[in-house]
Amino acid sequence: MPYTLANSAAKKAAAIGIGKKDRQARSSFEEHDQVWAVFDRDEHPRFNDAIALCTRSGVGVARSNPCFEVWLLLHEQDFNKPDDRHAVQAHLKALRPEYDPDRAKSPNFSELLKTLDIAEKRAAKLLERREAERNAYGRPSTTVHELTRAISTAAAQAMPPITYRPGLPEDAAAVSTLIINVQREFTFRDFTTEGQALMQEFCAPSAIKKYIERGDIYFVACAGADVIGVIGVKDHSHMMFNFVRPAWHRQGISTHLWQRAKAACLAAGNTGTFTLRSSAFAIPVYQRWGFAATGEAVSDRGIVYTPMRLSSKS
Q1: What is the CATH number of domain 162-270?
Q2: For residue 231, what are the β-bridge partners?
Q3: Each residue of 21-48: b (16+ CB within 10 Å) or e?
Q4: In this structure, how many other beta carbons lie within 10 angstroms of the beta carbon of residue 170?
Q5: Alpha-carbon distance 294 to 309, whole Å?
Q6: Alpha-carbon dihedral of residues 40, 251, 284, 90, nearest 10 degrees?
Q7: For residue 168, what are the contacts with CB-CB under 8 A and spacing of at least 6?
Q8: Per residue in 84-103, pLDDT tens?
C-alpha cells in the first residue's frame, strides 16, 4: 500500500534527521543519506496522499502509474498509452517473453543497465507530457529515473577522484583482469565457447604487456592505485580495447580515455581515421563519438562484433 510505505519512509527520514536544517549525521558516511519510497498506483487508495507525505518529509518518490512495468517498458521503447496495469504487463511480456506477471518478477539487471540512459530520457520525456497535460501523476508515468539518477550521483560522490595516465607494462595484469571481467558481464554471452577462449587469449596479461611494449597507445583510468578503465589503440588507428569497470559506468570515463588516446594518435601522425570492432552493448557510445557502422554484425571465430569507422580531423 503506497500510503503505508510512505508513512514508514517518512518515519525513517525523521529518525535520521532528513529535512532538518541542523541535521547532525552520526558519521561522514551518513552526511548525504537519502530515503526513497518506491510504489505503484495500481488500484491502491491514497496514492496522491502518499506522494504528498513523502514530499513533506523529504523522502524521494519513485512512483509509477499504473505499475512499475512502465519503467521496464521504457528500456525497450517509447510508451505513451494510458493502459491499466494488466495491459502494460501484457505489452511487456510480448517484448520480453521471459517476463511473467504471475510469477517472481526478477529482471535481468545487466540487461537493464545497457539501456538505463535511454530509459531515463524516455521517462523524463513521459513526465513532461503528463505535466503539460496538468496531470503529473497520470497514466503512463514514472519517476524511477529520478531514483536511478540519485543513485548514480551518490555513487560518484562516494568514489575517490579519478586520474588518467598512459598505460605501463606493469599495468598488464590489472588491465587484463578488468577487460575479461567486463566482457564476462556484458559480451561473452554473445560469443561461442571458442570465441570466449580466444578473447581471453587476446586479453591475457602477457598479451597486454606485449601490446604496450611494442608502442600501442594505452591509457588507463585509476581510482587511487586501482585501474578502473582502459583504452588501447593499435597502429595509432585501430581501437582494440575500451573498457570501464561497471561500478564506474556513466561517469564519462570512457570518453576521457578516448579523448586522450585520440590526441596521442593524431600527434603520432594519424590523419583522423579510426576503426574498431564493437560489441552490441558499446555501439551507442561509439556513435556518440562519431563512429558509424561499416557493415552488419559478424562472427569471426566465435567473436561477434560490428565493424565501425570514424573519419574526421576534428
Answers
A1: 3.40.630.30
A2: 219, 242
A3: eeeeeeeeeeeeeebbbbbbbeeeeebe
A4: 9
A5: 7
A6: -10
A7: 212
A8: 999 999 999 999 888 888 87
- Across 249-254, average pLDDT: 89
State if pTM tops 0.70.
Answer: no
Q: What is the mean pLDDT of residues 166-191?
A: 94
Residues near 101 by Cβ (< 8 Å), separated by ≥ 6? 69, 89, 90, 92, 93
C-alpha cell at 38: 518506491
Other CB atoms within a 10 A radius of the CB of residue 147 amount to 19
**Strand pairing category for 162-166 and 303-311:** unpaired
- Give the model's pLDDT for residue 168: 96
C-alpha to C-alpha distance for 261 and 206, rounded to whole angstroms: 22
* Cβ contact 67:88 at 8 Å: yes
Strand 162-166 to 217-223 pairing: antiparallel
Place of cell 549525521: 25
- Cell 497535460, residue? 133
* Domain definitions of the chain by residue range: 2-158, 162-270
Other CB atoms within a 10 A radius of the CB of residue 178 amount to 24
Query: Which grid coordinates are listed for 88?
Result: 502494460
15-31: pLDDT as tens digits? 888 765 545 554 444 56
For the range 42-48, what are the long-range contacts, defined as Cβ-Cβ under 8 Å and sequence gap of 24 or more? 42/66, 42/67, 42/85, 44/1, 44/2, 44/3, 45/1, 45/3, 46/1, 46/2, 46/3, 47/2, 47/3, 47/137, 48/137
Locus of grid cell 598505460: 167
pLDDT tens digits, 23-76: 555 444 456 789 999 999 988 889 999 999 999 999 999 999 999 999 999 999
